[in-house]
Amino acid sequence: MTIRIRGVVLWTGALLIICLICCQPGLGQKDTASYWFEKGNSLLESGSYEQAADAYEEALKIDESFPEAWAARGIALVGMDEYEDAIGCFDQALDLNPSYAEAWNNKGLALARGFGRYDEALQACEEAIKIRPNESDFWNGKGVASIGLERYEEAIEAFDQSILLKSTDALPWKNKGNALDALQRYDEAVLAYDAALGIDPEDAESWCNKGIDLLYGGKCEEAIECFNRALDLNPNYIEATFNKGNALGLQGKYGPALEEFEKAIKLDPDFSEAWNNKGLALRELGRESEAVDALSKARELGNREGN
After folding, report:
1. What is the CATH number of the domain that holds 28?
2. Residue 91 belongs to a domain
3. Which residues, at least 6 apart from 248, have a Cβ–Cβ distance to it below 8 Å?
4. Residue 125 has pLDDT above 90, yes or no
5. When you count CB atoms within 10 A of the terminal residue's CB, does the N or C end of the chain come out lower?
6. Local structure of 287: helix, strand or coil
7. What's 6's DSSP letter?
8. DSSP output for 234-263
9. Across 94-143, where does the E strand assignment appear?
10. What is the DSSP letter of 83?
């Protein structure tokens, strides 16, 4: 039985958006730009992105030369997946204050996340670093953009610098693990995920990614433990479900593996790899007609290797 593992998703959870809060005179006075700005900040913190964007817009109606409001509105728009408008807001902030490091960094991350424009993203993150070279988050942003460009060694260097500046942040450790995974340096990736989990043991993605790299190393039982931890934190985590099925299949436990592949298909009926591996598990169980149907479905969904 040849199982195909779905590898680490390099961009999931990799983006950190930060905003420098800088209040203008008049804080607390209704109908001032600062009042609406602070209202937007509260809404942004609670995840109410659309309402936050509206509040920042009210601030800008009163004072359109308020760079922090432009940048914060950009962050809210990123939360709404409105990347083009978000980048426009960051550009407005930078027109007003070309040394606004957070706006450069956030523009870079929006370019990467929204459009895959990694060259421009890297340039923007490097502008932020020129302004404030000792900001851990900016180095992390550079690393993320470098991953997008498949410049993994450079990404690792950036994440190492981020970690050096702020060793208590789990995110650059996790992202370093992602870059090491891309280089197939699986043992080192596991160590990086361990460091991330030592800081944030509630991060389901780090548990799943660690499990994937253990699986690449043939450590199926340890991998299953990681996938179970990820699923305890997020029962609908399709990557963990699918790869738990892979680990069980590699152990020859085809019945339990089949159950995991069927769970993955329930979560995403168009998941071609899950249909493929379901077919392989059914074939090992001697259920050939069902296997043929599953493999045919995998090919229909674009998995050309289903057989």
Report:
1. 1.25.40.10
2. yes
3. 220, 224, 254, 256, 257, 260
4. yes
5. N
6. coil
7. P
8. -TT-HHHHHHHHHHHHHTT-HHHHHHHHHH
9. none
10. H
Indicate whether 281 pLDDT > 70: yes
Q: What is the pTM of this model?
A: 0.86
Report the candidate in 50, 4, 1 with the shortest Cα–Cα distance to residue 215. Answer: 4
- b vs e for 121-137, b when ≥16 Cβ sit within 10 Å of the residue's Cβ? bbbbbbbbbebeeebbb
Q: Say if 271 falls within a structural domain.
A: yes
pLDDT tens digits, residue range 195-243?
999 999 999 999 999 999 999 999 999 999 999 999 999 999 999 999 9
The mean per-residue pLDDT over the stretch 120-127 comes to 97
Say how far apart CA 283 and CA 260 lie, in whole Å.
16
Picking from 226, 282, 272, the residue whose alpha carbon sits closest to that of residue 249 is: 282
Looking at the fold, whether 36 and 126 belong to one and the same domain comes out as yes
- Number of separate domains in the chain: 3
112 in any annotated domain:
yes
Q: CA separation (Å) from 10 to 14, 219, 286?
A: 7, 22, 36
**Can you tell me the distance from the alpha carbon of 210 to that of 226, in angstroms, rounded to the nearest whole number?**
7
Tell me: do 42 and 112 sit in the same domain: yes
Question: CA 78, CA 69: separation in Å to the nearest integer?
Answer: 14
Neighbours of 64 (CB within 10 A): 12
pLDDT-based confidence at residue 305 (cuts at 50, 70, 90): low
Range of the domain at 88: 16-132
pLDDT at 302: 86
Neighbours of 300 (CB within 10 A): 12
Give the end-to-end CA distance of the chain in Å, rounded to a whole number: 11
SS3 state of residue 111: helix
Domain assignment of residue 193, yes or no = yes
How many Å apart are CA 51 and CA 202, to the nearest integer? 29
